[in-house]
Write a structure and sequence with these properties.
Elements lengths: L1 H28 L5 E7 L10 H9 L5 E7 L3 H9 L5 E5 L8 E16 L15 E5 L4 H17 L8 E5 L1 H9 L6 E6 L4 H13 L4 E3 L4 H5 L6 E5 L15 E13 L4 H13 L1 H7 L22 H7 L6 H51 L5 H19 L9 H25 L1
Helix pairs in contact: 1-11, 5-6, 8-10, 11-12, 11-13, 12-13
Length: about 425
């Protein structure tokens, strides 16, 4: 009976778990489940790919299970700190400014390459030739990025053992670049920006218009070696003609340095959530291009680069490798594991109940065996031993048949025990009669 009750409890519990799992799965599949995520962004990509209202509108067609809420900051460093301090779940960071200690890469949103724009037939063929010269620094729109560009220039000059103080600088907007070059106030324009449409293309057009000739682009052949000494900087190859124009520039493939803007996630964020973010971001990439051309710059991070300063989040890596586990799969796996655990628990519980019944049966058997021994020993017992046997029979009766008997015996055991007790008392009485 006890075993049947336990089996019923286990069955009901398992059915409840299956029902809850089924309801949860239906709830998730119906897209009612939405995981809100706070995204810390700086001003650099304002209105671009992380214009979150545009993203959420595009993503709504895909019925995603994540919803992005922007936390706008004044600079990239603050965004990185927001992730570190737990204020944000995701953040847009720049690889050479500040890397959040608890951040892992989800996607590369943009790759900015460093180029020096010099007029045609310039004698400047390398950044090594800048000693004693003055260059223009192309404004990017934020003081933080412009300051970081100068730091990057200083690091490159130091690599070549050139004192940064030997290179003059003038901060210029792209509209001012053509005039500055044509008037020879500067020998060239140092710019950091995306390949293709953007500030660099505008500066190239400005210089072309002012000098009546398309400029040359200078990179750095030692980019790979320099990148190893600088945090968050990497070597990058720009394809010939990447910046377009009437005379597409550069004329040949150009090796230079680059920095990346990345969407990073807290390492503690569940893999299936990060995988969902990566999935909807790349699924919607084509449609985002119509909202913002900068979406074309979105790319997968290198999941094989173990030396990356910002390694890829396991959830994103699983998506890119085709091994992504959806939340539904996770819920199904949990449900399956729960069923296994309950099955093992149920079997163990049934075994324990069976083990508990064995002592009950063994106890009844032991009491009966002792009464039979008393019947045998009574044949040669003296009056004092007979009294002891009588007391022991009373104890057995109290222990086995009394209202506080633990554990209780079943009906068959009680019946047998009653018969044996009666026979044991008769054996004691017969012995007393013989002694008397």
């Amino acid at each position: 009976m006890i075993r049947n009750i336990a089996s019923n409890i286990i069955l009901v519990t398992l059915l409840c778990v299956l029902a809850i799992g089924g309801v949860a799965t239906l709830w998730w599949n119906s897209s009612l489940a939405v995981w809100p995520l706070n995204v810390a962004t700086g001003p650099a990509l304002e209105g671009g790919v992380l214009g979150l209202s545009a993203i959420n509108q595009v993503f709504a067609e895909e019925e995603p299970h994540v919803r992005l809420h922007r936390i706008q900051n004044d600079n990239m460093a603050t965004s990185a700190k927001a992730l570190e301090n737990g204020i944000a779940d995701l953040a847009v960071v720049r690889s050479d400014i500040l890397m959040p200690k608890n951040g892992l890469t989800v996607a590369i949103l943009r790759r900015d390459s460093l180029v020096l724009i010099v007029p045609a037939h310039s004698h400047i063929s390398s950044l090594q030739n800048l000693a004693g010269k003055k260059i223009g620094i192309l404004k990017s729109g934020t003081e933080e990025e412009e300051r970081q560009l100068e730091h990057l220039l200083d690091a490159i000059l130091n690599y070549y053992n050139i004192s940064p103080g030997r290179v003059g600088r003038e901060l210029l907007s792209f509209e001012q670049t053509g005039e500055a070059v044509s008037q020879k106030r500067v020998v060239g324009i140092l710019a950091l920006g995306p390949v293709g449409p953007g500030l660099i293309s505008k500066a190239i057009a400005s210089v072309t218009h002012a000098t009546k000739s398309p400029p040359e682009l200078v990179g750095d052949k030692q980019a790979a070696a320099i990148a190893k000494q600088l945090t968050g900087v990497e070597s990058n190859d720009i394809e010939a003609g990447a910046f377009g124009g009437a005379s597409p520039r550069p004329e040949e493939d150009l090796t230079t340095l680059a920095v990346t803007y990345r969407l990073v996630a807290k390492y503690s964020l569940p893999d299936f959530v990060v995988g969902e973010v990566a999935r909807i971001l790349f699924l919607a990439k084509a449609r985002l291009i119509s909202v913002s051309p900068i979406a074309m710059q979105i790319e997968e991070p290198d999941t094989d680069d173990k030396n990356d300063a910002l390694p890829v989040h396991p959830g994103a890596a699983a998506f890119f490798s085709g091994e992504q586990t959806s939340l539904v799969d996770s819920a199904t796996n949990i449900l399956y594991l729960t069923s296994i655990v309950l099955g093992v628990f149920g079997s163990g519980f049934a075994w324990l109940l069976g083990s508990r019944e064995k002592p009950i049966k063994n106890k009844g058997r032991m009491e009966i065996d002792r009464l039979i021994e008393i019947m045998r020993e009574a044949r040669n017992a003296n009056p004092e031993e007979l009294d002891k046997f009588e007391d022991e029979i009373d104890t057995i009766v109290t222990r086995s048949l009394g209202p506080d008997a633990v554990p209780p015996l079943d009906a068959d055991q009680l019946k047998i025990l009653s018969i044996v007790v009666h026979q044991a008392r008769q054996a004691l009485n017969r012995k007393r009669n013989i002694i008397d």
